[in-house]
Amino acid sequence: MTARIINGSALAQQIREEAAVRAASLTAAGIKPGLAVVLVGEDPASQVYVRNKVAACEKAGFHSVMERYPADLSQEALLERVRALNADPAIHGILVQLPLPKHIDAHTVIETIAPEKDVDGFHIANAGLLMTGKPLFRPCTPYGVMKMLAHENVALRGAEAVIVGASNIVGKPMAMLLLAEGATVTLCNSKTRDLAAHTRRADVLVVATGRPGIVTGDMVKPGAVVIDVGINRGADGKLCGDVDFASASEVAGAITPVPGGVGPMTIAMLLVNTVEAAERQLQEQGKA
């Protein structure tokens, strides 16, 4: 068996084009969707991510603001800037790029972002809404994975879904979204005993650990849908995922590549969340 490749790049392009149409409609109504991206420090990967996010916004017709600060910026100065963006009516989404320098508490920064502008979906209020099945914003990467599964017509109701990686950014919200669709979810972590015993049961396997090759073909159920969220740099300098693509693609029914899989979807869903935030502002103005 050779797995069908799930083309995240093509689906992301389609979603970005749809977001651009919605943005144009909002702009015509007097509200141009606005995203502010804040980068503190000189982390090379973060600089690439931020540049890609800003470029995607501009291409979709958004108002984008990119703010870069030195690594020695104080926490209070960052919080003051976030509060100013909260009060700016031209900004509908605020994204503070992680990781932050060690002297800044990321949790405090995230909790300072207004929940209605938290397009990453990381604020505790948005995490709580997601858990209760009434999300205001879905975190971008899990949201993108759900869009991919829907596009591939993957039947989730009653399916065995296994997630490897229990982070607040991917693993936990991924579990909530899959549960909401009726899947039976197992959430594994670094302390899970006999990981392969869990992954071999999965009809849908989502891997998000940041550990290249942690899942190999012999750990995959024949015909399973494998979603590789990992983005790592291999010894050869090339990008690779958390799944050993060569062996897994011989067993799985469908699989996402790295690059070109989940990565492009994350940025696409950031645009969708920002558009949704602007649409809510327009609705609120209509009620006023």
Automatic annotation (TrEMBL):
Q: Which residues bind NADP(+)?
A: 165-167, 231
Q: Which InterPro entries match?
A: Aminoacid_DH-like_N_sf, NAD(P)-bd_dom_sf, THF_DH/CycHdrlase, THF_DH/CycHdrlase_cat_dom, THF_DH/CycHdrlase_CS, THF_DH/CycHdrlase_NAD-bd_dom
According to the entry, every stretch annotated as the Tetrahydrofolate dehydrogenase/cyclohydrolase catalytic domain falls at 6-120
Please give the CDD domains that the UniProt record associates with this protein: NAD_bind_m-THF_DH_Cyclohyd
Question: Which biological pathway?
Answer: One-carbon metabolism; tetrahydrofolate interconversion
Q: Give the Enzyme Commission number.
A: 1.5.1.5, 3.5.4.9
From which domain of life does this come? Bacteria
Listed under GO cellular component are: cytosol
Q: Name one GO biological process term.
A: L-histidine biosynthetic process
Query: Is NADP found in the keyword set?
Result: yes
Catalysed reaction(s) here are:
(6R)-5,10-methenyltetrahydrofolate + H2O = (6R)-10-formyltetrahydrofolate + H(+); (6R)-5,10-methylene-5,6,7,8-tetrahydrofolate + NADP(+) = (6R)-5,10-methenyltetrahydrofolate + NADPH
| MF term (GO), any | methylenetetrahydrofolate dehydrogenase (NADP+) activity
Domain Tetrahydrofolate dehydrogenase/cyclohydrolase NAD(P)-binding intervals: 139-281
Q: Which UniProt keywords apply?
A: Amino-acid biosynthesis, Histidine biosynthesis, Hydrolase, Methionine biosynthesis, Multifunctional enzyme, NADP, One-carbon metabolism, Oxidoreductase, Purine biosynthesis
List the Gene3D superfamilies hit by this protein, alphabetically: Leucine Dehydrogenase, chain A, domain 1, NAD(P)-binding Rossmann-like Domain
Which Pfam families does the UniProt record give?
THF_DHG_CYH (PF00763), THF_DHG_CYH_C (PF02882)
| Family label | Belongs to the tetrahydrofolate dehydrogenase/cyclohydrolase family.
- Note the subunit structure: Homodimer.
Q: Which NCBIfam families match?
A: PRK10792.1 (NF008058), PRK14186.1 (NF010783), PRK14189.1 (NF010786)
Q: Could you tell me what this protein does?
A: Catalyzes the oxidation of 5,10-methylenetetrahydrofolate to 5,10-methenyltetrahydrofolate and then the hydrolysis of 5,10-methenyltetrahydrofolate to 10-formyltetrahydrofolate.
This protein is called Bifunctional protein FolD
